[in-house]
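Late entry, evening session. Most of the bench is empty. Finally got around to the prediction I had been postponing all week. Sequence below, unchanged from the version circulated by S.P.
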Amino acid sequence: MTRVAHLVRPVEAFAGVVAMAQALRGLVVPPSDQVDPGPHVEDGRYVTFWAHVDGVPATPAEAGSSLRALHQAARRYDLSLRSFDPRPEALRIADLVGGEAGAVLRAAAERMNRPELSEQPVHGDAHLGNVLAGGLWLDLDEACAGPPEWDLACLRHCSFLFGELERETRDALAAYGSYDEGAVAALDPLVVSSPRRGAPWHRSSASPSDPVRYAAWPGSGSAMPFNIHIGASVGMRL
C-alpha cells in the first residue's frame, strides 16, 4: 500500500500514524529521532522516517499479549486518524483500475456493510509478521481509528481465508484474551476488501494478461476478488 498511498489517501493520514507511534513508545517501533519523521511529500509520494530496530519475530503468544497491551494503551489517546473502513479506498482503487477488475472490486465493496462498533486507535495491519520479539509492533502505515476487533480480524486473516498459520493464530488469539467473536466475524469480509490485507494486494501473483483472481468467500456462495495486479491494470507510474 505504501507505494500507492498517494493515490487514495491524503498526506494528513500519515501525520496521524506518526503521532500514534510517538504516543505508544515502547509498544511500537518509534519514529526517527535523528531526522524529522514527517510525513514528507517527495515527487508526489509520502515519506516517513523511523528508528532502526534489530530483532526477530515475536512468538504468537508475544504477539497476542502485546496487541492487547497496545489496545489498552491506545484507547487513552484522541488522535486524528483515518477510518478503518476500507470501502472508500477500495472504490477509489476500482476507479483507477477500471475494466472488469475495477467492476468486480466495486461490486464487492458496495455489497459489504460496516458494523457499528466502538472505535479507538488501532494498529490497522496486525498480522504475525508485523511484531518483533518482546512485543514491539512495526509497520504502522495502516494505523487508523477502528474497533480493536479490526486488528484481530487482520491477525486471523491468513488462517481464516487461506488455512495458513492456523496453530500460530490460535495461540496469538488465546494470548490476547477475551474478545467479541461476533464482532470479529462481522469484520472479516471488510478485511478481504482492505487495500493492504485483502483484495487488491494480498498474495499478488497475477500477470498483466490475468489481472484478477477469484476466491470463494467462505459461506457466501459468491466469488470475491483477492488479487489485482495494480501496476498493469492502472497503467500509470506508481
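Two things to note before I forget:
Residues 60-74 form the longest helix (15 residues).
The two ends are 11 Å apart (CA to CA).
Will write this up properly tomorrow.
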